Amino acid sequence: MAQPCIITVALCGSVPRKEHNPGVPISVAEQVESAHEAFEAGATLAHIHARNPDQTPSSDPAFFAAVQEGLQKHCPGMIIQFSTGGRGRAMEERGSMLHHRPDMASLATGSVNFPSIVYANPPELIDHLAAEMLKYQVKPEIEIFDLHMLYNAGKLVERGLLKPPVHVQFVFGIKNALPAERRILDFYLSELPRVLPGATWTAAGIGKAQIEVNRWCLALGGHCRTGLEDNIRLDAETLAPQMPRWSSARRIYAGNMGGGPRR
User: Fold this and answer.
1) Cα–Cα distances in Å, from 237 out to 15, 16, 65, 76, 87?
2) Which residues, listed in sequence order, are joined to residue 226 by a DSSP beta bridge?
3) CATH architecture of 7-253
4) Contact, 97 vs 59, CB < 8 A?
5) In this structure, what are the phi and psi dihedrals at residue 235, rounded to the nearest 5 degrees?
6) What single-letter DSSP state applies at residue 242?
7) Which of 25, 1, 13 minimizes the C-alpha distance to 210?
8) Residue 62, Cβ neighbours under 10 Å: how many?
9) Domain coordinates of the chain in residue numbers?
10) Residue 95 phi/psi, 5° resolution?
């Protein structure tokens, strides 16, 4: 390979719960331990969502800060990426954690239909999040759920709200959005140098598309993403396994949101 492949681990997202898969990491302790396991296995980037104790999505800056502290301590050099995604979170709170200056944060550059909701990203919110990322020197990952989002990202560069080179992620397999078809990725990659010169890219496959999309990434020189946010199963009959040391991590973290597993 001409360049190393960066592997992202998307730990939990905003949708999967423990009743779907007991291994979904919800607490700070579980998220740091899960990211540590992935880091030791070769993952380079951790994509972070905050959850409340009842497993609902959260925008609590303290939660993001605690996970960040744990990863900085126990996964040295791992890229930390906060989610500004909108499922279950108030729009005005989606950038509330950016002052903690993670290495990266996700930035969707348009609205799109999801299976049961409209994932709303109005222009004023996009501009606000992009400006906050510039202010705090956070590298955006542009989330491409539909074609217009690629061209919107190009306009943000023209307006000075994104600094090149841009990093993008193409997301495949969400119902009502992009189907997981290789020819669509081929088209995106043909447009990428024209719209965002010098951009780097990865792609995410949701559900059963996860492994196949990663194969495309490896074949085409992109980067990869894995994790329980995108897919909680190994196959139709088998759940992805629970991390083996979470029980000990819970004891270590008792009463300490900012700690980490002691090795």
Assistant:
1) 20, 17, 36, 36, 27
2) 9
3) Alpha-Beta Barrel (3.20)
4) yes
5) -155, -175
6) P
7) 13
8) 14
9) 7-253
10) -110, 15
Structure tokens at 54: 């009842």
Compute the distance between CA of residue 215 and CA of residue 212 in angstroms, rounded to an integer.
5
Residues in the chain, total: 263
State residue 46's pLDDT score.
Answer: 98
Q: Is the dihedral of CA 104, 211, 185, 42 positive or negative?
A: positive
Q: Rg (Cα) of the chain, in Å, rounded?
A: 17
Which residues, 6 or more positions from 166, have their beta carbon under 8 angstroms from its beta carbon?
140, 142, 153, 157, 196, 198, 199, 200
Per-residue CA distances from 60 to 24, 31, 90, 102, 199 (Å): 19, 15, 11, 15, 31
What is the rounded distance in angstroms from the CA atom of residue 164 to the CA atom of residue 48? 23
- Give the 3-state secondary structure of residue 142: strand
One-letter identity of residue 200 = T
pLDDT digit string (tens) for 33-91? 999 999 999 999 999 999 999 999 999 999 999 999 999 999 999 999 999 998 889 99
